[in-house]
Write a structure and sequence with these properties.
The protein is an alpha/beta fold. The chain has one domain: Rossmann fold, CATH 3.40.50.300. The chain has 9 helices and 12 strands. The longest helix is centred in the last third of the chain and has 25 residues, at about 240-265. This is Iron-sulfur cluster carrier protein. Binds and transfers iron-sulfur (Fe-S) clusters to target apoproteins. Can hydrolyze ATP. It comes from OM182 bacterium MED-G28.
Length: about 270
């Protein structure tokens, strides 16, 4: 079983720091891609703090079926194939592992999951720029990375580190997602930029990257994600769901552009000389 042949595109959802909504973005992006008719897999690469089982509404204690005493059958949730360290351990277990063990566990989940053929494998990366990021870049061909940040200056500082890391390992960066961009008061409709403004634009200008989406700071996103019913699947008419659907369209567009760019050959010019 050669997993790289089972998905056309692998997309990393990454951030330089925790707490910026990376996993929420990964989950809703995966669901938005599926809503656009794509076959999608979702891999939780955060070994220390897996959150995909909760966010996808998988019953605690659910374990993947094992085939041939090796391969894990992904859990199906909201029409998406998922795998996570959270399916393999008790939710209260602390992963007190050193780096080699973490890398081994990640590679096993990536390579020994019996994915069906997928258009996209969305990988929810752990925060930071550590061993798993390097291991992924060295293990399989990554179609691109999406960097999630908030407009807050401290988040932008760490997002820069994430961008630099992916560039060093030759992973294309598809663009930036500015999460928690604005908050709309549900009572009066007032719009407020709680975490500041222009952060995504500053990163965009600095690195020549596109802002793929600006996602709102919205109570319904948090409530539905915590309940295992992400907003894209449970409230598709909600403005936040529309924002994720637009993000999915932009991601697909950028992936297509990178494929065309990578596949273009030399130009042959014919002259009379």
């Amino acid at each position: 079983m050669n997993n790289p042949e089972r998905f056309k595109h692998l997309i990393c959802i990454a951030s330089g720091k925790g707490g910026v909504g990376k996993s929420t973005t990964a989950v809703n992006l995966a669901l938005a891609l599926a809503a656009n008719g794509r076959k999608v897999g979702l891999l939780d690469a955060d070994i220390y703090g897996p959150s995909i089982p909760l966010m996808m509404g998988v019953e605690p204690g659910t374990r993947p079926e094992i085939r041939q005493q090796k391969y894990m059958v992904p859990i199906l949730a909201h029409g998406i194939e998922c795998n996570s360290m959270g399916f393999l351990i008790d939710e209260n277990t602390a992963m007190v592992w050193r780096a080699p063990m973490i890398i081994s566990a990640f590679n096993q989940i990536l390579n020994d999951t019996a994915w069906n053929e997928r258009d996209y494998l969305v990988v929810d990366m752990p925060p930071g720029t550590g061993d798993i990021q390097l291991s992924l870049a060295q293990s399989v061909k990554v179609s691109g990375a999406v960097i999630v940040t908030t407009p807050q200056d401290v988040a932008l500082l760490d997002a820069r580190k994430g961008i630099e890391m992916f560039r060093k390992v030759d992973v294309p960066i598809l663009g930036i997602v500015e999460n928690m961009s604005t908050h709309h008061c549900s009572s009066c409709g007032h719009e407020e930029a709680i975490f500041g403004t222009g952060g995504g634009d500053r990163l965009s200008a600095e690195y020549g990257l596109e802002v793929l989406g600006r996602l709102p700071l919205d109570l319904e996103i948090r409530e539905k994600t915590d309940a295992g019913n992400p907003v894209v699947s449970s409230a598709p008419s909600h403005p936040a769901a529309h924002a994720y659907l637009k993000l999915a369209q932009n991601v697909e567009c950028k992936v297509s552009q990178h494929v065309v760019s990578a596949g273009s050959g030399p130009t042959i010019k014919v002259s009379d000389d």
